[in-house]
Amino acid sequence: MFGLFRKIPFPIALIIPIEIVMMFLLIFPLIVEIWVSLTNWTPLLGVNWWHADFLGFENYYKIAIKDHRFINAVIRTSIIATICVTVELGLGLLYATLLLKDFPGKRIVVSILLLPMMIIPLVAGYNFFMLFIENGPINQILGFILGKKVELHWLSDPNLGLVAVMIADIWEWTPLMFLILMAGLASVPQNQVRAAVSLGASNFQIFRYLTIPLIKHIILIAVVIRGMELFKIFDVVFILTKGGPGTSTETISFYLYSAGFTYMRMGYIAAGSFIVLAIFLTASYYILKPVMKEII
Amino acid sequence: MKEVAYNEESKLFGVIRFSLIAVIVLFTMFPIYWMVATSFKPVQEWTPPKPIYFPKDPTLYNYKTVFLGPGRAKGGWWGSDQGVRDSLESTGAKIRISGESSFFIPFVNSMIVCVTSTFLSISIGLLAAYAISRYRFGGNFFPFFILSARMFPPIAVVIPLVVMFSTLRLLDTHFGLIIVYTGFTIPFSVWMIKSFLDDIPHELEEAAIIDGMTKFQAIIKVTIPLAKGGIAATSLFIFILNWSEFLIAFLLTSTRVITLPILISRYFSTTQGHLYGPQAALGTIATIPVIIFGFMIQKHLARGLTFGAVKK
Fold first, then answer.
1. Total domains in the fold of chain B
2. What's the total number of domains in chain A?
3. Is it the case that residue A83 has pLDDT exceeding 90?
4. Which of residues 69-128 of A touch B (CB under 8 A)?
């Protein structure tokens, strides 16, 4: 037994444990998912999933073409992801530029700015629930700025609900952008900046023509990572709006959860999640490869 | 911190800069402050017509409720503070540690699951990271294959896992949650530890092997002590990820193995979010360990969240 173990080349022996875990948690579930997505299985049938009726591609057809809730959720999630990534990138750049120079207490300010991303996402969603209620502080502060009484129903209005979800996400994850971009700005070689200054460049010109091109790949990494995470957004939606009112704030993850686990239509939802998986895999392959190649 | 070489800015610009910094600090701190403040507010101050920014009559009842479980504080939540006090004092003389509503069981569950799965994830990830860093194992494909596991939306992988686990009777067990958490955090541990291992010269291990150690002994006795700081940072980082995880635990557990985020969501959904004070108290308690750990690894956070791409 041990002799056999010795014969395995060392690098392969090192990755056996990870292979086992990945097999159990990735490959095997994928096979199960593909099979279940081709059947009408639900736990309510009372039979095991390998005994369910085979349907072929009916589930796929139904969810990808007929199911407007699913299609809307995909579109909505893309909109949320685009807006949030843009705003977070802009704010992150602003934070990082503001904190570029040293000043007394900078370390404390940086630590404070990083707080939100350490908060449990569910708790962050709950924080914003408290802030967004009708007689909560956000309406009052808005009223104070506008000089009249504001009574916005943030969480029960279809459009405002979406805005509330995005604000909560921006609050929580701008610090990550800031952190990555700050590391990027710190890596800009100072002698190049000095050269630009002595050649008479303004700070804006330095920023536009020197800093941005130098940290372009770091910006790309930050955008890709945030974008990927945003497509999975669930916790905040779950707490803030529960996908409602109606289905107006449902994201991909939330739709799969609510359709899958309230009606227990496992086959149907497996088809949906397999489509999502396929999109994610293709996208991550094409987006991530050039990005990560620069780093390895 | 090194000196920065940009142009001198005008005085006006400096004032604008500092006021903007003040604004973003306020924007960042306000929701956290609101949670902590609410956790000390008595029941009348939770949602008055005009929000109260500083608790006028601070109490510890909310924390007491979280520790006792709201089941022990029957009645009085919607009435006066007196009602809360009475019900707490009449029933809560001794702390009852049982049932889903008390804070202790979920806390212990969270600890068991997070510590074990962090340990497993780090051990397995370290070996794979070593294979990638030192032997370039699998070229570019293998690291990307591992990373792709992180790209899946968890919900899409959890659905077949629910199906599988119901057959294997792993639903609602510590073991089931531990392996899923291990699997989901392995990409982070592999990539982050790899980025730390890359910084360590491999000549040291080679010297140890020439001196008569086996390759495995060289990892244990040379590499791990050298990468100690990095491994510790990775562990804390993965602990934070596990501690905050909600969706997987929500779908894979029901009654026995409740983690802290599940308890928070239960407090929330059973009252449509109206139990403001105790929820804020629970949120504060649950967040404290994460924030402490987060500050301990502050300078490695960027590295962790970008899979080791940003080193600083």
1. 2
2. 1
3. yes
4. 91, 94-95, 98-103, 106, 109, 111-124, 126-128
